[in-house]
C-alpha cells in the first residue's frame, strides 16, 4: 500500500507512461494525417458523447465495486487484528493462571495466534507458510502440519483442541467465550479467502479495458477537426482521465495480489506480533516502516 | 464462475456474437437504405441523447443490483464454509472425546455437515440431493429423508437431535454454543433460498432488454447522416457497449442458475469436504480445478 | 410477486397502457398542431436536456431506494423463516423430550410459531389474523387474544411465558438460547413494521410523478420540429422509458401493499408451515404455486 | 412525518411557494429586460450544461446521504421498539414470578422502560423529560434524576442495579441475557445521539443551497434567447426541479429536528407504551393518529 | 467538526479564497489575451463536456467514499461511547457490590475506561497519551505503561486481568459478559486504527486534484469566445463548483487528522467522562462547547 503523503510523481509517471505515450503517438499520427490528407471528416460527436458518458458510468461503477472489495479486504484484516488481540486477552484472563500448566497454555495459544496470522498472509500471497511460522511453534507441531491443505484452519483447530484438554484450568462458559473468538477468526479468514478466490466477474475485468482503449483510439478522430494542431494535447488529456479511472479499478480489484497497491499484510502481521508479545509481557520487534512510500 | 486470468476471446465472441451480428446486419441495411433512397433524414439527436443517457443510468443501476445479488450469494456461501469449519471444530472440541461414544458422535456430525452442503448445492441447482449425500450418511438416515421437502434443514435437525441425546458427553453451555453455529448455518441457507426464489423485480428483468434493443435499432438511423459509410462500425461499437452492460446484469442476476457465470458451488462444497475431513484427521480428495477457465 | 420467467406482455401492456395511450394521443395532438399552425417554434433543447438528465438521476436514486426497501422487506421475511426453523429445532432439542410434558410443550411452541407468521402476515396486510391462526392454537388462547393490539407480539410472549414455567424440562442456559431466538424474531417483526409504517418521504413519493408527467407533456413540443411526422413514435418511446423508471419505483416502494409486486408473504408463511410441521414429524400441506405467474 | 396517501398540495405549495415565486419574478424580469434592451446575448450553454449536470450530481449524492441519515434514524427507533418489547418479555419471563417481589420487580422494569423511551424522545427534541416520565416512576426516583445530565442512561443503570440486587429471583445467565438487551438499548440510544449531534459536513449543508440559487438566477439568462416569452414558464419549471431536489435533502438531513418531516417519535413512544402495558396485562392508551396527514 | 447552524462565511471564504483568487486571475488573463490577440479560437466544447462530465462523476464517487470514511469514523466513536457506558453499567452491576473490594474494583474499571478513551484519542491524534490519563490511574500503573506500544490495548488487558483475579466477586458468566464488552471496545478501536492507518488509495488522493486543476485552467479558454467579457465570472463560478466538490472529499477523507473538519474526539471523550463519573455517582466536569462554531 502506498502511504506517502505526497504523490510520488516518479511512480505515477512510471505506471501511466506506457499507455499515455502510446496514446500520444497515436494522437499525433491522427493529427498529421488530418493535415496531410485533409479528409472530409465525419462528425462523430453524437456517438462519442454517448460512448464517453456510458463509459464514464461503467468505469465509475467498476471503480466503486473494486474499492469496496479493497476496503472489505482491509476491514477483514482489521477484524483479524482485533480478534487476535481479544484472543490473547482471553487466553491470559479466562484460563486460570496456574503457574505451571495455565501460564504455559496461555502463552502457547498466543504464540500460535501469531503463527496463524503469518500463515494466513503467506497462503493469501501464494507463498509457503512453514518457514514463517516455525519460530512460533514447537517442532513436532510443524511436522504435523506438513501435508495439511488449510494450515491456518489447522492451527485454529489445534488451539481449540488444547483448550478442550485443559482440565481444571478453565470452565465451559469461558471455553465457549474463547470458542466464539475462534468463530470470529474463522469468519475473517473465510472472508479473505472469498475475496482472494472470487475475482470480479469476467465482463467487469476485461470489457472496461477494451472499451477504454477503443475510446482512446477514436477520440482524436472525433476532435481533430475542432482542435486542429492542439489535438494531441486535448486528446491525451481526456484519454488520461479515462485511463486513470480504469487504472484505479485495476489496482484495487485484487487486494491480495502482491502489488504496491496491496493491503499491507506484512505490516499488519507485525502489528499483531508486537501487540500479542507485549500482552504476554515479552519484548517485541519494531514495527514495519514504509520503504520508499510503500508499506508491504 | 470464470476464473481465467486472460479473457477467453472465444467465450466472449461466442456469447456476444449473435446479438452483435444481428446489430451489424441491421446497421448495414440502414446505411445502404440511406445511400439508396437518400431520404430527407430526421434529426433525432436530442431524443437519442436523452434516451441513451437514461438507458445508461438504468443499466448502471441494474448492473449494480445484479452484482450485489451475486456477491451476496457468494458471501453467503463463504459464511457457510466458515460455519462448517467452526461446526467441525466445535463438534470435536466441545464434545468430550470419549473413545467410544464421543468420537463417533463428533465424526458423525462432521460427516453430516459435509452431506449438508452437498444437499444444499443440489437443492439450489434443482437436482436430486440423495445420490450426492449417500456416501456421508448411514443407510437408515438416507431412507428417513425420502419425502422430506427441505432435506438440508432436516439434516441440521438430525444433528441437533443427536446432540440433545448425547447424555454426559457435553453440557448445556457447549450445546448452546453449537446450537448458535446451527443458527448461523440456517441463516446462510435461508439467505441463499431467498436469492434463489426471489428474482429481480419484473421491470428490472425485462425492460432493460427491451429498451436496449430499441436503442440499438434506432442508433444507426440517428447517426447515418453524420457517419455515412462508417455507420455500421460506429453503431455496432456503441451498441456493443450497451449490449455488454445489459449482459453483465443478465449474467449476474441469478447466481444459482447453472451457467458459467454461476457462483462455483461444486468447488466450494469440495473445499468444505477437504477441510472437514482433514479436521477429522482423515484423507481428503483433491480440490476442484477450473476446466477451460470455468470453475463450477 | 411476479415470478414467471418470460414477461407476460399482457400484464406489461395492461399496466403501462393507460399512461402510454394518453401520452400517444397528446403526441399526436402536438404533431397535428405543429403541421396545422406551423408556429415559429421555440428551441427548448437546453432546458429539456437539463430537465431530462436531472429527472433521470432523480428517478434512478428513487428506484434505488425503493428497491432497497423491497429487498430489505424480503430479507426480513427471510430472517423470519430462518428464525422460525431455528426456534422449532431448539424447541425440540433444547427442551427435554419428556414423553408427557416435554413433547407437548415443544409441539405447542412450534405450532404457535406457525400461528405467529400467519398473524404477522395478516397484520401487515391489514387483515384480521384471528381466523387464520385458529387452527394452530387452543380455543382459550384465541379468546385471550381478542382485544390485543399487537397479536404477533402477544404470541411470542405466550411462548416465552410457557417456557418460563416449564420446570425441570430445560435449564437457564437453554432458555436463554431460545430467548435469543425470540429476540431475532422480534427484531424481524419490528423491521417489517418499520417498513410498513414509514412510507418514502413525501417528496420522493409525489414529485417524481409530477415531474415525469410534465416532462412527457413537454417532450413532443421539444422534438416536433426535428422529428416531424415521426414525433408521436419518438416521443412515446422516450416517454415510455421514463414512465417505466417511475413505475419501477412505484411498484417496489411499498412491499407490503397487497399488489402483484408484493413480497410473497402467503407463500413464505406456507413454507414456514411445511418446514415446521415436518420438523415435528407431522404431515405437511403442499407449497403454494404461482397463479398466472404471480406468487402471493 | 407526513403519512397521507395523497399529496397535500396545500402543504407542497406552502413550502415551495416562496422560493418559486421569487424565481418566477426574476424570470419575468430577465425576459422583460431581454425584450426591452435586446442585448447581444452571450451564449452560456456550455457552462450551464456543465454546471447543471454537476449540480444535479451533487444534489443527488446529498439527497442520498440525507435519506440514509433519516432512514438510519428511523431504523434505530425501530431497534429501540424491538428491544423494549424484548426487555419487557424478558423482565416477565426471566425473573421468577414470585407473587410478592418478582412480579413487582418485573412491572417496575417494564414501566421504567416506558419512561426511558419518553425521556429519550424529549432529550432528542431538546425538551425537559421529567414531566413526561413522572407517571411511570416513583417519586423518589424522579427526585434522584434531577441534575443528571444523561437521564435515559441513568434509567437504564437503575434497572440494571435493581436487577443486581434481586437476590434469588433470577440467576447469572438470565441476568446476563437481560444485560445484553440493555446493551442493545444503549447502542440504539448512542446511534440516535450520534445522528443528533453530528450534522452533515459543512460543505454539504451550505454549498448545495448556494449553488442551486446561483443556478436559478443564471438559468433564465441562458435560455431567454431560445425560449423568448415562454422563458418564465420554462425556467421556473426546471428551477422547481432543482429546488425540489435541494428541499428533499434539507427536509431529511436532520431527522430529530421537530419539523413535519421528522421521524415520528411521539407515535413510536406511544407504540412502546401500548405494547409494554399490554404485555403486563394492563389497559393501554389509544395509538397516536396523524393530524392533518402528519404523524408526530 | 463545524457545528454552527449558519455558515461562517469568514471560514468558507478563508478556505476557498486562495484557489478561487488564483482561478479568477487566470480567467482574467485568458479574457484579456482573447480580446488583445483575437486568436482564431479552437472549439474545444466536446472534449470539455466529456472531461467535465467524467470529472464530476469521479469527484462524486470520491466524495461519497470520503464521506463514508468520515461517517464510519464517527460511528465507531459512537460505538465506543456506547460500549463505555455499558462497561460502566456492567462493572457496577455484574460485580458484587461488596463494600470493600467490590466497589473499589468497579470504580477502578470505570476510571480506567475513561483513561482508555482519552488514551485512544491521543494515539489517533499522534499525541502522547500519558499526561492525559494520569488523573484516572494509579501512579504504578502509569509507570508500567511506559514503553508499551499500544497503550489503549494495554489498559483493556489490565482491566481484564484484574477481573480475572476478583475471586468471589463475580462468576464466569458475568465475567464472560464483561469480556464481550471488551471485545466490542477492541473492535471499535481496531476500526479506528484501520481508518487512521489506511489512507484513500493513491489515485483517489492525487488524481482528482490534478484533474480539477487542469479543468479549471482549460475552462476559460473553452468559453471565452462565447462569454466574452463575462468569462471570468462564468468560469470562476463553474470552477468554484468543482473546487468545492474536490474540497468536500479532501476535508472528509482523513477524519482523524486534527483539522476543523475532524471527528470531535475531545468532546466525545468528555461525554464519556461525564456519563461514567455520573454512573459512579461522582461529580462530573461540564461538557465541551464549540469554540467559534468548531467542536474539537
UniProtKB/TrEMBL annotation, chains A, B, C, D, E:
The keyword Transport applies. It is a multi-pass membrane protein. Keywords: Cell membrane, Ion transport, Membrane, Transmembrane, Transmembrane helix, Transport. One of its GO terms (cellular component) is plasma membrane. It holds the Pfam family Bestrophin_2. It is found in: Cell membrane. The keyword Transmembrane helix applies. The chain crosses the membrane at residues 20-38, 44-61. GO terms for molecular function: chloride channel activity. It comes from the Bacteria. Belongs to the anion channel-forming bestrophin (TC 1.A.46) family. PANTHER family: UPF0187 PROTEIN YNEE, VOLTAGE-DEPENDENT ANION CHANNEL-FORMING PROTEIN YNEE. This is Bestrophin-like protein. It comes from Beijerinckia indica subsp. indica (strain ATCC 9039 / DSM 1715 / NCIMB 8712).
Amino acid at each position: 500500500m502506498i502511504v506517502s503523503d505526497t504523490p510520488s510523481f516518479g511512480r505515477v509517471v512510471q505506471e501511466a507512461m506506457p499507455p499515455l505515450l502510446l496514446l500520444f503517438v497515436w494522437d499525433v499520427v491522427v493529427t498529421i494525417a488530418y493535415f496531410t490528407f485533409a479528409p472530409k471528416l465525419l462528425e462523430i460527436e453524437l456517438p462519442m458523447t454517448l460512448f464517453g458518458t456510458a463509459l464514464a458510468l461503467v468505469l465509475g461503477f467498476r471503480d466503486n465495486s473494486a474499492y469496496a472489495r479493497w476496503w472489505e479486504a482491509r476491514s477483514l484484516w482489521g477484524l483479524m487484528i482485533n480478534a487476535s488481540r481479544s484472543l490473547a486477552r482471553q487466553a491470559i484472563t479466562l484460563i486460570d493462571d496456574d503457574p505451571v500448566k495455565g501460564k504455559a497454555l496461555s502463552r502457547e495459544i498466543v504464540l500460535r495466534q501469531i503463527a496463524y496470522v503469518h500463515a494466513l498472509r503467506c497462503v493469501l500471497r501464494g507463498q509457503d507458510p512453514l518457514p514463517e511460522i516455525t519460530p512460533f511453534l514447537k517442532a513436532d507441531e510443524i511436522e504435523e502440519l506438513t501435508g495439511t491443505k488449510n494450515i491456518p484452519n489447522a492451527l485454529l483447530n489445534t488451539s481449540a483442541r488444547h483448550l478442550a484438554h485443559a482440565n481444571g484450568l478453565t470452565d465451559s462458559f469461558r471455553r465457549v467465550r474463547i470458542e466464539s473468538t475462534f468463530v470470529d477468526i474463522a469468519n475473517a479468514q473465510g472472508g479473505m479467502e472469498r475475496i482472494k478466490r472470487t475475482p470480479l466477474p469476467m465482463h467487469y475485468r476485461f470489457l472496461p479495458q477494451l472499451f477504454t482503449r477503443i475510446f482512446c483510439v477514436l477520440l482524436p478522430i472525433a476532435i481533430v477537426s475542432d482542435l486542429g494542431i492542439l489535438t494531441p494535447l486535448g486528446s491525451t488529456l481526456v484519454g488520461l482521465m479515462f485511463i486513470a479511472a480504469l487504472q484505479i479499478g485495476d489496482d484495487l480489484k485484487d487486494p491480495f495480489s502482491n502489488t504496491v497497491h496491496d493491503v499491507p499484510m506484512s505490516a499488519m502481521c507485525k502489528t499483531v506480533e508486537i501487540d500479542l508479545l507485549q500482552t504476554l509481557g515479552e519484548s517485541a520487534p519494531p514495527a514495519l516502516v514504509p520503504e520508499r512510500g510503500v508499506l508491504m
